[in-house]
Amino acid sequence: MTEHTIAAGAYAPEANANAHLEDLTPEGRVNDPVHLKTEILAKLAYSVGKDPISANSNDWLTATILVVRDHIVDRWMATTRDNYRAEKKRVYYLSLEFLIGRLMRDAMNNLDLTSGIKEALAELNVDIDFIRELEPDAALGNGGLGRLAACFMESMATVGVPAYGYGIRYDHGLFRQAIEDGAQMEYPEEWLSFGNPWEFQRKESSYSIGFGGTVEVTKDWDGATTSTWKPAENVMAIAYDTPVVGWRGEKVNTLRLWRARSTVPIKLDLFNSGDHLGALSESNRAESISRVLYPADSSSSGQELRLRQEFFFTSASVQDILRRHLQQYNTLDNLADKVSMQLNDTHPALAVAELMRVLVDHHNMKWDEAWAITNGVISYTNHTLLPEALETWPVNLIERMLPRHMQIIYAINARLLEHVKAAGMDDGTISAVSLIGEQGSRHVRMGNLAFVGAHKVNGVAGLHSYLMKQTVFKELHSVFPDRITNKTNGVTPRRWLMEANPALTALLRETIGDGFMDDTEKLKDLIPFAQDPVFRAKFAEVKQSNKARLAQLIHDRVGVKVDPTAMFDVQVKRIHEYKRQLLNILETIALYNEIRANPHKNWVPRVKVFAGKAAASYWQAKSIIHLINDVGSVVNNDPSVRDLLKVVFIPNYNVSAAEIIMPGADLSEQISTAGLEASGTGNMKFGLNGALTIGTLDGANVEMLEHVGAANIKIFGMTAQEVEALRIKGYSSREVIEATPALKEVLEGIAGGTFSPNDQHRYQGLVDMMWNSDHFLVAADFQAYWNAQREMDVLWHNQDAWQTQAILNTANMGWFSSDRTIREYAEEIWNVPTN
């Protein structure tokens, strides 16, 4: 395009559709407001079809996104051509979740377009901050696993790893959470109501995914057998691509999400006969696969749908990977040299069987050759130490839905057990490593399948990786002692510092320069300023402004006014018993009791902030949410507390809410039962934004302790080793509660209906669990947690000391960048170079 064309106001990217690709470069566009304004108007007219006079806010949002997308596409095509020409090895990241959130601010920041577009829109009388809030959150994930996948995609582009992310394009994603009378209610998340201007539908990239049917075995001329799967049902997987731009816009990777469609959209004969619902039954069955993230699996039909989802996206991804590879190289012999497939948790574990099926059945490879390739291609990230969280599927369900894959799993297992027996392992080890669990009904252990099929298996924090070898994969580790490695998680500093906390970013740039923006380890240059009273005051001022923003969010979402000068004590994450939101709310009730009993004590004003979603069928977690809200209703309306304590639960926690919550927190709650949290990434986001951590020695808290120093983090409670020793010894929660008067009083109050006067027995199940089992050791750690919280009270009264520690947390969090994590994956697992 020429300067003359732009000046004449005729610039529209569509006009360049026939330009030679070699001339389409990132330097082909100009980022100044004048040109950006022209681009926005062109998009508004020719893509949205609106005149500026009649355009509404969503029209302006769409036009702006399309302009940003055009700037990304230039770099996307350049990156793709470079990868093909250089024959670079590609990484394929398979994840059932990608919690990407809103994309516009992220993309503008990485392309250095923010100021130019803001000015261009201002000249058009459009408020960028207003329209940015209209962009829906893509709720394609539940929590840390999905947000990690999103961070990794951005970091892979940033450090120059050629990558595709593969997942499902859910129509509704995870449910929209509402709180009604204190209880969680689930509603569809309508993130696609106005379409998705970021994506490109790729109708040419569609694949048939089979289910059910039979396996036919034929003999070849040389006596060898060939297996052919004849599915009874086929569903089409349609690709939708979203470009993911890295920092400075130098590289762009692809997030490819699959949408399920029927091969027969409507049965016209049934429709014309009057059976209008029956005519759509096949289409509805197919489309249900990509309708909702994590459908409840408490029923057999729910289990089947979950398995269909996992195989659907895994099979489509494997087919797409092999198609792309063969298109470029015309051979599969070098597949392991050019392809690395990372399984994010066990959800895509069927990739092991699916890749073997395609190689053996479709490409006529011998088993050993196919297995060597499969093992060389696949690596697996484990995210849990909870045995019940390692997926298993009934053998009869897989045999019915995926008969050929069940045969392959049996064959893999037979060879594995032969190897184990030959090595002289005992029966206990043989039983533990088997891909087939025999306890109760026979089931396939997806964690074992992923472990055996991968050449590397990684945990996501040092302690987690160590405990994998001691617990869930102890026996497999003894068989494959070099397979487990550690890759401690990280978060992208672009979204979680530069975008979420622009005021702190500006202060850091003013104080230590811009170096940290390209290398977060340079945040250490901030350390000397922790002792500077002037800087501490500026740092505290930034925090206060962020707290005011969080206070506004709380008022808007919950209707509760909170004091921004109070300590904001925050626990936001998926609601689960092992994460121990229950411990937090029980200590909150004990604090409430103490404030009422000793009203003239020098209490620290606190705002207890909770947020997170409970799985729709997880009764205990939903009961904890209800308790938090009931406690808030009582505490927040008790005049005797004098606003010294507020309890709020922010509904529908998502990425956009987190971007406001993380910078506004003073105290970060990371209080899981030691040995059960794989890593955590919220702990890193809070620390990066200058919150102090109160937590157990669990997950990545261990590395945080090492990096920020024991003086700047509050660790309490039992260690993982002490937890294990207590379980072996035998634990009586009743004895502990009887010996802890404050906790006993709390439980008696809950059981007596103090917080649920209209339903006195509402929390009987929670209270009985505490007295009789307390599997997650809430009572055992209660007193230590109470004591640690009172130490934080003392520290809060000394704001110079508090701000010093907060600054040192920010300064020492640079190591927890997802760029560092990805470089470690690239070097030690994927064998791909980085920039």
Short précis:
The chain has 35 helices and 22 strands. The protein is of the alpha/beta class.
Question: What does this protein look like?
Answer:
With about 850 residues, this protein is of the alpha/beta class. About 50% of the residues lie in helices and about 15% in strands. The protein contains 35 helices and 22 strands. It has a 9-stranded mixed sheet with strand order 5-8-9-2-1-10-11-15-16. β6 and β7 form a beta hairpin. α23 crosses α34. The two termini are about 30 Å apart. The N terminus is likely disordered.
Key structural traits:
35 helices; 15% strand; Rossmann fold; alpha/beta; 3 domains; disordered N terminus; nine-stranded mixed beta sheet; single chain; 835 residues; six-stranded parallel beta sheet
Give the SSE map:
Blueprint: H1 3-7, H2 33-48, H3 57-85, E1 90-94, H4 104-111, H5 114-123, H6 128-132, H7 144-159, E2 163-168, E3 176-180, E4 183-187, E5 200-211, E6 214-219, E7 225-230, E8 233-245, E9 252-262, H8 268-272, H9 276-279, H10 281-287, H11 300-329, H12 335-338, E10 339-344, H13 351-362, H14 367-377, E11 378-381, E12 392-394, H15 395-401, H16 403-422, H17 427-433, E13 436-437, E14 443-445, H18 446-453, E15 456-459, H19 462-470, H20 474-479, E16 484-486, H21 493-499, H22 502-512, H23 533-558, E17 567-572, H24 581-597, E18 606-611, H25 619-635, E19 645-650, H26 655-664, E20 667-670, H27 682-688, E21 692-695, H28 701-708, E22 714-715, H29 720-729, H30 733-738, H31 741-751, H32 764-772, H33 778-797, H34 799-811, H35 818-830
